[in-house]
Amino acid sequence: QVRPGLRTPRLPVWLCSLTGRHGVLFGTDSLLLSDWRKERVFHLYFYNGQQEQTKTAHLTIDTHSHHWEEDQSEDPSSPGKRRPSVEMAIRTKWAGATVSWNGTDPFF
């Protein structure tokens, strides 16, 4: 028997399988689950438990950013345009969102 609290989480939590590794993407704002207005700019955290990740990554998600604010001088196929798999997973829910890693080096 699964308890109701496990069927309906109080905080947003996603279990992820990215490039063959498992991790958890989570938020600490319960209103993100019930109030669409909270989806403008919000924070998520990602942890995968791998040796190369020494601390939980703190990500800021902006769903109202504009694609033309990105550096247009770069070729889209250049290595500098490559996006981490965590960002691509986030964009499956919030298409076009920008992700700030807040000083953490993005990992792929």
Could you characterize the architecture of this molecule?
The protein is an alpha+beta fold and 108 residues long. The protein has one domain. Helices cover 12% and strands 26% of the residues. It has a five-stranded antiparallel beta sheet, covered by helices on one side. It is globular. 9% of the residues are buried.
Secondary-structure map:
Blueprint: H1 4-7, E1 13-18, E2 21-26, E3 41-47, E4 57-62, H2 85-93, E5 98-100
Antiparallel strand pairs: 1-2, 2-3, 3-4, 4-5
- In DSSP terms (H or I, runs of 4 or more residues), the helix count works out at 2
Broad shape: globular
Query: What's the domain count?
Result: 1
Report strand %: 25-35%
**Based on DSSP secondary structure assignment, what is the total number of beta strands?**
5
Measured on Cα atoms, how large is the radius of gyration? 15 Å
User: Strand sequence of the main sheet, in spatial order?
Assistant: 1-2-3-4-5
H-E string: HEEEEHE
Helix content: 10-25%
Give the averaged pLDDT, no decimals: 83
Which secondary-structure class do the elements indicate?
A: alpha+beta
Which parts are unreliable, with pLDDT below 50 for 5 consecutive residues or more? none
Could you tell me how far the N terminus lies from the C terminus, measured between alpha carbons in angstroms? 37 Å
Biggest sheet details: 5 strands, antiparallel
